[in-house]
Design a protein that fits this description.
alpha/beta; Cobalt-precorrin-4 Transmethylase, domain 1; Methyltransferase, Cobalt-precorrin-4 Transmethylase, Domain 2; 11 helices; 50% helix; globular
Length: 264
């Protein structure tokens, strides 16, 4: 908690929060007496017009979330966009964020990284999401991948990650960051899966998957070699369709790469 954040809360006319009981604990610690109102995913859209009207009249509204950073997988996005569209000033007091803190502690390459919020709660949809990222890797994309996850879904998510990215992909799982039981578990996806199969995961979970290793470069070179050869006798569209079937990648991914190769 920064001095700037405390000053911001004290100077506000009202503090918008997910749960007034949770925020009350924070305000008590820092002797902040500003009144609070509830703003969460279920009422945010309805409350935006009245809140914008208050801001237009000069009121200062502070927005907090129960944990982490507002808007980043927490409420506040609709209100913030509406305030920006209305030409009202919007600022932020930076605070703790699980995604960037987990990246810092993971030992995985810090940039580029891709934060995707929560993955789908259903395995079939989750695997489809992962497959899109894996296809992008096979076409040359490389980044450390980050998600949030609920503890009761962690093992299922790890199973899906192993199925799509392979059992030996380097990864990390962080939980309860900045709290009493903070933990960071590093290793292959299989090693992490084995740990949490005997140690029940608890608290707020952040999952990180490192970028692909040498196998990605081999795959990319194979894709390019196939496309170069196919483009000698086929149009970009036909070459992409032909190669996509051979390398088991989505046609749109292969077509985009074929366009790049065709230009050069």
């Amino acid at each position: 908690m920064s001095l700037r954040a405390v000053a911001t809360l004290r100077a506000a006319d009202v503090i918008l929060c997910e749960d007034t009981r949770v925020t009350a604990k924070l305000l008590k610690v820092y002797n902040v007496s500003t009144p609070t109102q509830i703003l969460h995913d279920h009422n945010e859209q309805d409350r935006v017009p009245a809140l914008l009207a208050r801001m237009a009249e000069g009121a200062r509204l502070a927005l907090v979330s129960d944990a982490g950073t507002p808007i980043v997988s927490d409420p506040g996005y609709r209100l913030t966009r509406a305030a920006i569209a209305a030409g009202l000033p919007v600022s932020a007091a930076p605070g703790a964020n699980a995604a960037t803190l987990a990246l810092t502690l993971s030992g995985l390459p810090p940039h580029p990284y891709l934060f995707s919020g929560f993955a789908s709660p259903r395995s079939s949809a989750r695997r489809s999401q992962f497959a899109v990222l894996r296809a992008a890797e096979q076409a040359g994309f490389t980044a450390t991948l980050i998600w949030y996850e609920a503890p009761h879904r962690l093992l299922d998510m790890l199973d899906d990650l192993i199925a799509v990215f392979g059992p030996e992909r380097e990864a990390a799982v962080a939980r309860e960051l900045t709290k009493k039981f903070e933990e960071i578990r590093r290793g292959s996806l299989t090693e992490i899966r084995e740990h949490f199969s005997v140690t029940a995961p608890r608290g707020e979970i952040t999952v990180l998957v490192g970028p692909p290793g040498d196998e990605a470069a081999d795959t990319e070179q194979d894709l390019d070699a196939r496309l170069v050869e196919a483009l000698k006798t086929h149009s970009v569209k036909d070459a992409a369709a032909l190669v996509a079937g051979a390398v088991d990648l989505p046609k749109r991914v292969v077509y985009a790469r074929a366009l790049e190769i065709g230009k050069s």
